[in-house]
Write a structure and sequence with these properties.
Oligomer: single chain
Radius of gyration: 24 Å
Shape: globular
Number of strands: 20
Strand order of the largest sheet: 3-2-4-5-7-6
Number of helices: 23
Distance between the termini: 60 Å
Largest sheet: 6 strands, parallel
Bound molecules: thiamine diphosphate, magnesium ion
Structural class: alpha/beta
Length: about 575
């Protein structure tokens, strides 16, 4: 048994999980951990300018790598500043590990300086939140937290280590391989459930797959595509999960749900069997109602987490399993039964839906109004972004056009706020993603409002050399909310208009690169130059201040109003 101080023990436990970065702002409560990093540069402490960004960065890194994304912050405000970012990780099922150096146990329960009940505060946004109260429990309780974060459906955890527990005593511990304290094999499906699913698939005339985050996470995209190709089952993606299958696949129609493709919604309404893989069929995918899913349509739902199977829609077959294992089992079983492909007419219908979407998007490449329409900006991005680009979308109207307008061909390349819907998300999440996948081009797409919420992290990006490109579509307003006031309050605008500096100049003040693109022709050139400049870069694009997508609540539920 080695004798280690608490700080070194924490570092060794994180190294066993492959952690290379810790995000946070220095605080006196956890200096033993930082001191361990002085001599051991296997882990870099990325010191940011606001803890919220640290949590987003950790989430971004986790989303693209499936490694724990670690934050280390101080008690009180250091931790409370994290909460929005941890909430994002919670809805994305990201294994973000929050370590907080807490107030000394001697002072607990006295409303001491920076003393808050962090375990209670973080419970609703984590899978597990705990406080360690004895130094010798650091290894097993940190492993308990890592087990929760990294097993089954992933999720964030909080571990508070009071400063006296961390700093004062040597502890005896031995390194342990990850396999000794948590399961590392994916969960296979039950054969009976696969048999039932195959029976339904064989009976269906118009089967359709809705695939979600579980597919990218499990690396099941290729198997899903094979299933689609061999058995003529078209594919649509869940909200914000367009990267689950290669979008070039001829039977991929488009994304379903809020700001999704009307053609995907139309295909969904035609389907007589839904095979949902790695999707909860949740709020912005289905709106919890029958506008896309026909009432009573049989559903085979595969999810790694039983809690969400049959939760919003009754299922004909529920299968708790890893998406890749389940897709493989379905392929094997369908092959054994010599299942014929679905009817050619259904395949043709799906191909027509796909072609309809492609031509609609191609038409937007001709919009030449100035200020630019966001739709045209996305047409330019489709033209110039390299295929392995990771794109992070912020909340807001101009970013929202991206849900239906970007192309993805690799898993874990589309990062969105999902059910958090939080502004200020895209730039810091992109920074974390870039650290996780340094060879991939990484682009964050913001409105002017959301960008300034975490724009200060340009300083972090420049200092750490994290070369992310940020697009700021500037309409000088909180556009998405202005759209509501226009649609429902007769244009009585309150609290919607804002002013902005020139963001190309702003970027240069930080030592980053700045570009300004106001004509269609300038957008592609600016983005390509920004990607090649070898620095963090910001591209400001002034856009039409009157161009908003239809607010969700304005959409009627009849099938004719396909856009949501
Ligand atoms: C943290 C946070 N605050 C407020 C909101 C409400 N909200 C949603 S979109 C939006 C406007 C976004 O403006 P901007 O980033 O400029 O993008 P635009 O809609 O103008 O394209 C607001 C205020 C939110 N989603 N998140
Ligand atoms: Mg705006």
């Amino acid at each position: 048994m080695a004798d280690l101080n608490g700080g070194r023990a924490v570092v060794e436990l994180l190294k066993a999980e492959g952690v290379k970065y810790i995000f946070g702002i220095v605080g006196s409560t956890f200096l033993d951990v930082l001191d361990a990093l002085y001599d051991d540069r296997a882990i870099e402490y990325v010191n940011v300018r606001h803890e919220q960004a640290a949590a987003f960065m950790a989430d971004g890194l986790s989303r693209v790598t499936d490694l724990p994304g670690v934050c280390l912050v101080t008690s009180g405000p250091g931790a409370t500043n994290l909460i929005t970012g941890v909430a994002a990780a919670h809805v994305a099922h990201s294994p973000v590990v929050v370590l907080v150096g807490g107030v000394s146990l001697d002072h607990s329960g006295k409303d001491a300086f920076q003393e808050y009940d962090l375990v209670s505060m973080f419970k609703p946004v984590t899978k597990l939140a705990l406080q360690i109260t004895r130094p010798e429990r650091i290894p097993d309780l940190l492993r308990t937290a890592l087990r929760a974060a990294m097993t089954g459906r992933r999720g964030p955890v909080l571990v508070e280590i009071p400063r006296d527990v961390l700093n004062e005593q040597m502890i005896k511990t031995d390194p342990q391989a990850v396999e000794t304290y948590r399961v590392t094999h994916p969960l296979p499906p039950h054969p009976d459930a696969i048999r039932d699913a195959v029976r339904l698939l064989r009976q269906a005339e118009r089967p359709l797959m809705i695939v979600g985050g579980g597919v990218s996470r499990a690396g099941a995209g290729e198997l899903v595509t094979r299933l689609s190709e061999q058995y003529g089952i078209p594919v649509i993606t869940a909200y914000g999960r367009n990267d689950a299958v290669p979008n070039v696949h001829p039977l991929y129609i488009g994304p379903l749900g809020r700001a999704g493709a009307p053609e995907a919604a139309a295909a969904c309404r035609r389907a007589d069997l839904i095979l949902a893989i790695g999707s909860r069929l949740a709020h912005f995918t289905t709106h919890f109602d029958d506008r896309y899913l026909r009432p009573g349509v049989p559903i085979v739902q595969i999810d790694v987490e039983s809690r969400d199977i049959g939760r919003y829609f009754p299922v004909a077959v529920g299968i708790q399993a890893d998406a890749r294992e389940a897709a493989q089992a379905l392929l094997d079983a369908l092959g054994r039964d010599n299942t014929p492909a679905a009817k050619p007419a259904w395949r043709q219908e799906a191909e027509a839906f796909r072609a309809q979407r492609q031509s609609r998007l191609a038409g937007e490449g001709k919009l030449d109004a100035q200020p630019l329409k966001p739709q045209r900006v996305y047409a330019e991005l489709r033209r110039v972004l390299p295929p392995d680009t990771i794109v992070a979308l912020d909340a807001g109207a101009a970013p929202a056009y991206g849900y239906d307008r970007l192309q993805f061909n690799r898993p874990r390349t589309f990062l969105t706020p999902l059910d958090l819907g939080g502004l200020g998300f895209a730039f810091p999440i992109a920074l974390g993603a870039k650290l996780g996948r340094p060879a991939a081009p990484v682009v964050a797409i913001h409105g002017d409002g959301g960008y300034l919420m975490n724009a200060h992290e340009l300083e972090t990006a420049v200092r750490h050399g994290i070369n992310v490109v940020t697009l700021v579509m500037n309409n000088n307003c909180w556009g998405s909310e202005k759209a509501y006031q226009r649609a429902f309050y007769g244009g009585r605008y309150i609290g919607c208009d804002i002013g902005n500096p020139r963001y190309d100049a702003f970027a240069r003040l930080f030592g980053a690169e700045g570009y300004y693109a106001e004509t269609p022709g300038q957008v592609g050139d600016a983005v390509q130059a920004a990607l090649a400049c070898g620095k963090p870069a910001v591209v400001e694009i002034p856009i039409d201040p009157d161009e908003f997508p239809t607010p969700a609540a304005a959409v009627r539920r009849e099938p004719s109003a396909a856009r949501a």
